[in-house]
Write a structure and sequence with these properties.
Blueprint: E1 8-13, H1 17-32, E2 36-37, E3 43-50, H2 55-73, E4 77-84, H3 85-90, H4 93-97, E5 103-105, H5 113-118, E6 129-130, E7 152-156, E8 158-159, H6 170-174, E9 178-179, H7 182-194, E10 199-203, H8 220-227, E11 235-238, H9 248-256, E12 260-265, H10 273-279, H11 288-298, E13 303-310, H12 317-330, E14 334-339, H13 357-362
Parallel strand pairs: 1-2, 1-3, 3-4, 4-5, 5-6, 7-10, 10-11, 11-12, 12-13, 13-14
Antiparallel strand pairs: 8-9
Amino acid sequence: MDSPSARTVCIVSLGCPKNLVDSEVMLGLLQERGWSLSSSGEAEVVIVNTCGFIREAKEESIEAILSAASDKKQGKVGKVVVAGCLPQRYGKELVSELPEVDLFVGTGEFHRIADLLQSPPKAGSGGKTQIGPPEFLYDHRTPRIDTSLPGSTYLKVSEGCANFCSYCVIPSLRGRLRSRSIASIVQEARQAVSRGVREINLIAQDITSYGGDRKDGASLVRLLKGLVKVEGLRWIRLLYAHPARVTPELIGLLREEEKICKYLDLPLQHVDEGILKAMNRPSPEQPLPDFIARIREEVPGIVLRTSLIVGFPGETEKAFRRLEEFVREARFDRLGAFPYSREEGTPAASLRGQVPERVKRER
């Protein structure tokens, strides 16, 4: 078989839309340095941008890495690079487990991908593992190749997280909350519209925390007031909103602004107060059923999506039945339910009352 074409790259992006944006940034940075995108699966370099959030995501990432390694053995690709959350979380452990991989790049170093491929690092500078503190934050000047469907794109407004939910490893993988400036996000929206984009999906680990780390008064509401003024933009969709930070002003914008979709993604995770406290998940001031009813009353026709975790440590049969009853009453338009994943290094992993896997699956 002929050797893969020189300076061609193929990327496999796993996990959430936030990871997809990172993949698109890597593609943009590589294209700027003369690399070509291969869609055939045969390339000089294949990058697997991984997710390391929960067990199922890690298993999917390992499968994709082994598939790329098999392609390398068959001569379809020259080098295998593993990027993202998995190497950020497990670092040098992966070197011995996956000797077929040529380079591991963490969430704090992926913006250096072109340099790392141009001049592979030597052992003294980390060698195969390039993993540093996650501090990078892209902006409107960063090259990015949009791979979303025509007319729609994701805009990442911040990176990292300051919530520290007890079950979650994201703060250790993505770092502290780092919000972009409103001017940068609005400019990226204008650039997207100039390419034909009409719908923007705002994403972050928690978009309602946006601006909390800045000292210029930035907030989600102020950002939205800037975005609705972008000419040619028709729809703005909000993803990953923490229910405790959904303010009356935000609800008012959802009701009044035509460009803001009557849609809200509210990951509640649970309804039992004891479970939420153990999760370190603050609730709205109102009881959750009243909170949901108020949103629907104030924004007629709104579509509500939520995600729930079942089988969290300490979830008794009574607590689960309470959750079931809430779901029946709330009648969400979209709902995702996931069994709790016991992740090492998180406070929840050491909690008493771990629920058996069989019970989690049943719930």
